[in-house]
Amino acid sequence: MAVTLSEVRRRVAQVHQGADLEQQLCFYDAWASEYEEDVSVLEYGAPQYAAACLAAAFGANTQEALVLDVACGTGLVAQELQAVGFRHFHGLDGSPGMLEHARHKGLYQDLKQCLLGQEALPSPEGCYDAVVIVGALSEGQVPANVVPELLRVTKPGPDRNASEMAFAGIFCQTLLFTSILWPLSITGLELAINDIAVDRKVSTMPGRALPLRCSVRNHSQEEELFWLREDGTVDLKDGNRMTSSSLCVFPVSVEDNGISFTCRLARDASVQVSVTLDVLFPPILTGEDPPSAEEDGDVTLDCHAKANPPAQMTWRKDNTTLMLEDSRYEIFQTSELYQLKIRGAQKSDSGIYDCLAEYPGRTEQKSFHLVVGDKTVPFPTEAVIAAAVVVFLTILFAIVARRERILKCFRKPSESPSNTAL
Fold first, then answer.
1. What does DSSP say about strands 320-321 and 312-317: parallel, antiparallel, or unpaired?
2. What are phi and psi of 196, to 5 degrees?
3. DSSP states along 1-43
4. Which domains does the chain have, with CATH numbers?
5. Cβ contacts of residue 244 below 8 Å, gap of 6+?
6. What's the rounded Cα separation, in Å, for the pair 190 and 185?
7. What strand order describes the sheet that includes 351-359?
8. Measured between alpha carbons, how far is residue 408 from residues 289, 395, 399, 415 in Å?
């Protein structure tokens, strides 16, 4: 689905909302894959203007110049500089995600991560023929105190002193900075959770309290808010609805992992912002011993495992890692089940089986006791029933065939009349 202009405006607005450094880097890392699509929707022309400005200053000497691209992002400025004849680029940025996308373009001979304004530039004095910074020199992004560092690593020009060069460079940067901020002036009403106006994940741990505060931005009147936990409405007190609304998730539990909380404008359901809980917890292993098995039968051991992030799972038998190359062993794994199936179990398969979950800094295990006994001979139930039926029918037929004789045995002898005279 194509991104809309309003969505891009919200993301660009988020860049300039003064979040702390860790949040900003996380935001840029997440934005890197969609950054170029978003700026194309904005018809962002600052990289082209910068390239034209620098090409005009260098004239025919572009191919030998070494250019430092500060806050290089995904490499849009280097693309435009290459189009006007520049060939040698070094890049700096604070976001590893942005640098990775820039690296894939193959334009830069050197790329480094640098927290601009907090660290010195990782270059010696007078190293670069030109230094460019496009669309990033602003409050909440790259601070103005980086300018002396930009001048330090730039070679002095042959025809202008350092102050003239600084003035020209800052004038060009100010013009480009104004062009990138233009979309913000027409950004509409929006919501922010904990001062961040984009959907995101929030990491926490079981047992902690997680406060969530939703606020309305760019509003001209009081606005009513409500919260959703997944698809269900959260009950709020009357004084906790207008323009600003707060929740506290306490205590956070393992079951809260993946649950989303959404703050929504009452009069317009399309205006909303969400956070999804990323509850970090070590492995929780459960399961029961399998019933005693017979030789040649199949055995299943179910190890129920939950962890976030997911743990590395293995099986061990009698303290030795189980070699699964044997075709008799099968592994089935889901997000919450690690199952071992043994086909055609043998008495030698009896023993203690450990389900191991390796997690950063710790290993959890759950033990299962398996007993494989002799194969029992099954009772011939069908044969016994068949024989009983035959015997019964034989007796029945014998009785029927000899019924006359049998009946005579039960008849009384007839009495003859008496001839005795009185």
1. antiparallel
2. -125, 125
3. -PPPHHHHHHHHHHHTS---HHHHHHHHHHHHHHHHHHHHHTT
4. 5-186 (3.40.50.150), 190-279 (2.60.40.10), 282-373 (2.60.40.10)
5. 213, 214, 215, 216, 225
6. 13
7. 320-321, 312-317, 351-359, 362-370
8. 68, 19, 13, 16
pTM of the predicted model, to two decimals? 0.45
| Coil, helix or strand at residue 347 | helix
Q: What's the Cα-to-Cα distance from 383 to each of 386, 388, 393, rounded to whole Å? A: 5, 9, 15
* Dihedral angle computed from the Cα positions of residues 90, 96, 97 and 98, in that order, rounded to the nearest 10 degrees: -30
Token reading at 104: 């894939």
Length of the chain: 422
Classify the C-alpha dihedral 136-37-198-253 as positive or negative.
negative
Q: In angstroms, rounded to a whole number, what is the distance separating the alpha carbons of residues 345 and 405?
A: 62
- Written as six digits, the tokens of 211 are 């406060």
Euclidean distance between CA atoms 303 and 225, whole angstroms: 44
- Strand 260-265 to strand 225-229: parallel, antiparallel, or no bridges (unpaired)? antiparallel
DSSP 248: E
Joined together, the tokens standing for residue 354 give: 């450990």
Query: In whole angstroms, what separates CA 362 from the centre of its chain?
Result: 21
**Letter string b/e over residues 365-392, b meaning 16 or more CB atoms within 10 A of that residue's CB:** ebebebebeeeeeeeeeeeeeeeeeeee
pLDDT tens for the 422 residues of the chain, in order? 566 777 777 767 666 555 567 777 888 888 888 888 888 887 788 898 888 888 888 877 888 899 999 999 999 999 999 999 999 999 999 999 999 999 999 999 999 999 888 888 999 898 999 999 998 877 667 888 888 899 999 987 654 443 334 333 433 333 333 333 333 333 468 999 998 999 999 999 999 999 999 999 888 788 999 999 999 999 988 889 998 999 999 999 999 999 999 999 999 989 999 999 999 999 999 999 999 988 889 999 999 999 999 999 999 999 998 877 667 889 999 989 999 999 999 999 999 999 999 988 889 999 999 999 887 767 678 877 888 888 888 887 777 777 777 777 766 665 555 555 44
Beta bridge partners of 269: none
